[in-house]
Amino acid sequence: MTNSECLSKYERYLTDEKKASKNTLSSYLRDIRQFGDYLESQTDADYVSAGEQELCQYIDLLRAQGKSIATVSRNIASLKNFYVWMKLHGYVEKNPTGKLVPDKAAHKLPEILTAQEVELLLAQPECTDRKGYRDRAMLELLYATGIRVSELIGLDVTDVSLSAGIINCRGRNRVRAIPLYPKAIKALKDYVEFIRPEMIASPSERALFVNVSGERMSRQGFWKIVKSYQQKAGIEKDITPHTLRHSFATHLLENGADLHSIQEMLGHADISSTQIYSQLVKKQLKDIYNKAHPRA
Q1: Nearest CA among 166, 103, 138 for reference residue 224
Q2: What pLDDT shows up at residue 186?
Q3: What is the pLDDT of residue 105?
């Protein structure tokens, strides 16, 4: 069921069964629609597949954007009511809003990896077989560009220009040309020129990254790859493909990149979506200060 279909059914429920007032109806639908826009633009989830992580990160984003306590609390109430309805009608097995609390103490910024943890994770795939070469190329590309996992697995081989050192990422409304660092270019070159031709099931296969069956990699397949290398690296943080996206943006900002350039590479429609990474950098600086200053 698409987000649009889900929202239409919820609107009918509020109108026909709950007899919601015009203001209540407008408020609830606006909040749920904006959450749906966030899921589509910044995650790989939809209303049905969204979990606690997506819900918490969305509320964190509202706070990072400076939304009032009242606005945040109303959004939480809207989401809680929406998912009570979703569970009641069997559209989700579990209500994912349990950790949403209308209190500042619930504020948590996205988890990111340190530069050392990124290096450790990227070093895990061993280039001794086809899978190792493919996985190394996927992880390097994800951290090099900050693209979403849906965009990563959606890449075609023609979207890569090794000579120019860029990929053309096809988003919802436009194509973004994103540069690659040398190690990512090398990993992609090895995979595209020597490994991929041996993995594809058919010469007509367009997908850049394929699974063991020679067909386009799935989101679930790549998710398992990331989790396996997290365990192999011994990193205790809960790493997801989106963690590398957050880390990419934060590390660029830490090293002097401007927000508008990061916004362009991430494909954010609004700069306010990118500003959450400024909050992450400020928090890290404060933590360093508190640990290092003799009077802190």
Answers
A1: 138
A2: 97
A3: 46
What DSSP string describes 174-228? Answer: -EEEEE--HHHHHHHHHIIIIIHHHH-SSTT--BSSB-TTSSBPPHHHHHHHHHH
Which residues are CB-contacts of 149 (< 8 A; sequence separation ≥ 6)? 44, 142, 219, 222, 223, 241, 242
Cα–Cα distance for residue pair 155/175, rounded to 1 Å = 11
- The three-class DSSP label of residue 170 is strand
The matching CATH number, chosen from 3.40.50.10860, 2.60.40.290, 3.40.50.720, 1.10.443.10, for 115-288 is 1.10.443.10
What pLDDT sits at residue 47?
95
Angstrom distance (rounded) from CA 156 to CA 131: 18
Strand bridging mode 175-179 / 166-170: antiparallel
Task: Locate the domains of the chain by residue range.
Answer: 3-106, 115-288
Strand partners, 141: none
Cα–Cα distance between 179 and 185 in angstroms, integer? Answer: 9
230's CB contacts (< 8 A; 6+ apart) are 121, 237, 239
In three-state secondary structure terms, 161 is strand
- Non-local (6+) Cβ contacts of 181 within 8 A are 144
Architecture of domain 3-106: Orthogonal Bundle (1.10)
Of the candidates 137, 146, 130, the one whose C-alpha atom is nearest the C-alpha of residue 189 is: 137
- Residue ranges of alpha helices (H) inside the chain are 3-12, 22-42, 52-64, 69-88, 115-122, 130-145, 149-154, 182-190, 196-199, 219-233, 241-254, 259-266, 271-274, 276-292
Q: What is the strand order of the sheet 166-170 is part of? A: 160-161, 166-170, 175-179
Residues 6+ apart with CB under 8 A from 119: none
Structural contact between residues 253 and 268, judged by C-beta atoms closer than 8 angstroms: no
Tokens of 122: 């990227």
Task: Collect the ranges in the chain with pLDDT lower than 70.
Answer: 103-109, 172-173, 283-289, 292-296
